[in-house]
Specification:
single chain; 9 helices; 13 strands; globular
Length: 288
């Protein structure tokens, strides 16, 4: 059977989320997580569907990608198919030819599993590597310690607290209350939580969103931030510890996160929260 490239409609997103859940394997290298789709869902179901690409054979999805912006494709490949030559060559042909509707002409990037054959084939096409990212993992066999601050799970009535911390922590953030509600209404959020940490005066000082891929599968932190007025007081560590505890409660055996290696403050914060760095990963890029 031939491999078929598709852009699913909103009614096809459930199948994509289910496939991404199934592909998350404890201890395996990090790749696109259902939580990544869940975080993108803040732009709405229609925008999320338009940003997704799938590659299927005989009705089974073998690879799925998220266009996280117009020029970055974040790719996941089913276990057992990362070295499948037919799939890898089909992926490469689709991403290098703009008329196929995956990536445009000019400078573009692909995030793909480091052990996948597509990495080698893109290198043969002259694609280089960008600055490294550091994935980190925390084992959740044992319960996390008390974070030492008040932590609340955020519902619709408190969405403004979550979004305000996000916008303060990330200067370019466009996370509004409306977008929180869109995210919370998405399929992946059924197994997700937003947490906010409060200081002794009741001020919201840090926030995080955690995503489960189902019991027995690694959970994801995406994103975490500390309010700009409350940095340097250990709140990043506290919310990271709380995130690990929440992911464990959702049935995950481990928690993962990924941050640019150049963001040494973030790497240090995750390490202080019990996460251990894994080998760096590199995006592939094509010059303009």
């Amino acid at each position: 059977m031939p491999i078929v490239l598709r852009t699913p409609g909103t009614d096809g997103l459930g199948q994509v989320v289910a496939a991404l859940r199934e592909w998350q394997v404890n201890g395996a290298p990090l790749q696109l997580h259902p939580g990544d789709l869940g975080w993108f869902w803040r732009f709405g179901a229609e925008a999320t569907a338009a940003a997704v690409r799938t590659w299927s054979r005989d009705g089974r999805i073998l690879a799925a990608g998220l266009l996280d912006g117009a020029t970055l494709l974040r790719l996941a490949i089913a276990p057992g198919y990362q070295q499948d030559e037919e799939l890898a060559r089909h992926l490469v042909a689709d991403v290098i030819e703009p008329e196929r509707g995956v990536l445009p002409a000019g400078k573009v990037n692909i995030e793909a599993p480091m052990a996948a054959l597509i990495q080698e084939l893109l290198a043969e096409q002259g694609w280089g590597t960008e600055e490294p990212w550091t994935p980190l993992r925390r084992d959740l066999t044992e319960p996390a310690k008390d974070p030492g601050v008040r932590i609340e799970i955020i519902g619709p009535e408190q969405a403004h607290l979550r979004t305000a911390v996000q916008r303060s922590a990330f200067e370019s953030s466009t996370f509004t209350d409306e977008r929180w509600h869109a995210m919370a209404g998405g399929l992946p959020y059924a197994d997700a939580r937003c947490l906010v940490a409060f200081d002794g005066q009741g001020e919201a000082v840090a926030a995080v969103t955690v995503w489960s891929a189902g019991p027995g599968r690694p959970g994801l932190i995406e994103p975490m931030g500390v309010h700009e007025d409350h940095r340097g007081h250990g709140y990043g560590k506290a919310i990271t510890v709380a995130a690990a505890a929440a992911i464990r409660e959702l049935g995950a055996p481990s928690a993962v996160v990924c941050t640019p290696s150049s963001n040494t403050a973030a790497v240090s914060t995750y390490r202080s929260g019990g996460f251990e760095p894994l080998p760096e990963v590199l995006d592939r890029y094509r010059d303009a």
